[in-house]
Amino acid sequence: MRRPMVAGNWKMHGTRASVAELTEGLSNLVLPSGVEVAVFPPALFINQVIDGLAGKEITVGAQNSAVQPEQGALTGEVAPEQLVEAGCKLVLIGHSERRQIIGETDEVLNRKFAAAQAKGLKPVLCIGETLEEREAGKTLEVVGRQLSSIIEAFGVKAFASAVIAYEPVWAIGTGLTATPQQAQDVHAAIRGQLAAEDAEVAAKVQLLYGGSVKAANAAELFGMPDIDGGLIGGASLNADEFGAICRAAGN
Ligand code: PEP
């Protein structure tokens, strides 16, 4: 039985004051006990959020980490080793904004994935197709290729300690959500691809859906058999809305 997970990606939002307010709102939430809840603040606020959530069952993760596990000469980056020391347990790898705007390639993402795991930081690998790719009927090819990149480099067992987030690029921050069936179809294909290599890994890995999830559509999406929760962007910036999404995953 897979534990549902709801994770909030705060992206590049926040000031000390707004982060304090959001963290306090999260501290006051009544969260369902069976759901793993996580937040990904901007790196600058990770310490503040970890301190603010002390004693609360919310895991804190980073939105990015370096291609090498240890601290060293790599200007502007944060090493997995440093994130672990700060108290992070998870890291987003391959969010579409980083693939598209920063230009991160599968090769770079493979290095980040391995560096994170080398220090015990669990990667949340984000994969998904653009609208153009979906309209060209290439969704499963694109998502399959992004997944294969990790499998070919490290073997399918790498997913025994990772999470996968399927995030159609056309649904991120647009208000357009994949229908539960569209999302389920891709999630089933992802699990099928893993199962072809290792049935146990496939059965256990948490597959999250991301793309304009809100309290109003969360329950329907999370009710699908291969959707184990969500990666939430915009709606995670409001503690009450985020709490309602977490409760939807608990039902
Ligand atoms: C995201 O950034 O991962 C995301 C899913 O954003 P949103 O929920 O705002 O579409």
Annotation keywords:
251 residues; 43% helix; alpha/beta; binds phosphoenolpyruvate; eight-stranded parallel β-barrel; single chain
Task: Explain this structure.
The protein is of the alpha/beta class. It has helices spanning 16-27, 46-52, 80-86, 96-102, 106-118, 131-135, 139-154, 180-195, 199-204, 215-222, 239-250, and strands at 5-9, 36-40, 58-62, 90-93, 122-127, 163-166, 207-210, 229-232. It contains eleven helices and eight strands. The protein has an eight-stranded parallel barrel, surrounded by six helices. Strand 2 (36-40), helix 2 and strand 3 form a beta-alpha-beta unit. Helix 7 (139-154) packs parallel to helix 8 (180-195). It is globular and about 45 Å long. It starts with a strand and ends with a helix. The protein binds phosphoenolpyruvate. The site of phosphoenolpyruvate has 14 residues, from strand 8.
Query: Which range does the strand content fall in?
Result: 5-15%
Mean pLDDT: 97
Order of helices and strands: EHEHEHEHHEHHEHHEHEH
Helix content: 40-55%
- Terminal Cα separation, in Å? 14 Å
Could you tell me the number of beta strands?
8
Give the CATH architecture: Alpha-Beta Barrel
Q: What is the fourth-level CATH superfamily? A: Aldolase class I
Bound ligands, named by name, code or SMILES: phosphoenolpyruvate
| Strand order within the widest beta sheet | 1-2-3-4-5-6-7-8
Question: What coarse outline follows from CA principal-axis ratios?
Answer: globular
Instruction: Quote the CATH topology.
Output: TIM Barrel
Helix count, DSSP H or I runs of 4 or more residues: 11
The parts where pLDDT drops under 50 for at least 5 residues are none
Q: How is the biggest beta sheet arranged? A: 8 strands, parallel, barrel
Structural class: alpha/beta
According to CATH, what is the class? Alpha Beta
Indicate the radius of gyration in whole angstroms. Answer: 17 Å
